[in-house]
Amino acid sequence: MAMRSLALLVLLSLLVVGVAQAVELEMELVPADAIAMTMDREPPQECATPVSVEEACRSASETHAGVAYDHCMASLGADPRSKEAGNKNMHALAVLATRMAIDHAASTESKIDDLAELEAASSDPQARARFNHCLEQYGGAADLLRDALDNLKAKIYGKAMEQLTAAMGASESCEDAWKGEEDVPVAAHDREYGRMAHIAFGFTHHAAAAA
Fold first, then answer.
1. Domains of the chain
2. What is the pTM for the complete model shown?
3. FRET partner for 105 with CA separation of 20 to 30 A, picked from 25, 40, 163, 208?
């Protein structure tokens, strides 16, 4: 019996040593930095806070004089991307509104360029100078809006709002170039762009507040 007990003890000891060596070998095979990364890694956080276009437009119109609720609803509601963005959060709506403002700036620049081409046939150098001024303003606004979009995506809201504010000045500066003229061929385009730029700013401001 004593011999059998001793044999069992030896066998158990060998099993324990084997398991310990196997665990040690497994730990050696896994890089230490990989283990640290696994321990430091936080579980993904769900940050989706759905907001309807109606809620977003109402909030923006109540806090920003340049945002008209009806126009905001008509502009965002007509874009099929707004529903998907609203299902995420205010940040996604701000990104969409900024993209729409970029599109408006580019299309306004294109329309003004077409008007300038027609005006080139005339002999009025002052009119051509006004069109050129507007083209410069909208070209610069489009660049500012693209930079704002990049900062907005990175959630650098303060810088994005600064750039959106600067981009808003394009329509006013273009209008000023036509002061004293009864017919302002770019008026409708200026107005539409200005409204969209204000919506983008209003949405971005609320996204920053919700962050």
1. 53-210 (1.20.140.40)
2. 0.74
3. 208
Supply 87's token pair. Answer: 């299902």
The type of residue at 201 is F
Backbone region of residue 110 per phi and psi (left: phi > 0; alpha: psi in -120 to 50; beta: other values):
alpha
Dig out the tokens for 28 from the structure.
């050696």
pLDDT digit string, tens, across residues 151-185: 999 999 999 999 999 999 999 999 899 888 888 88
The answer to whether 141 and 170 have CB atoms below 8 angstroms apart is yes
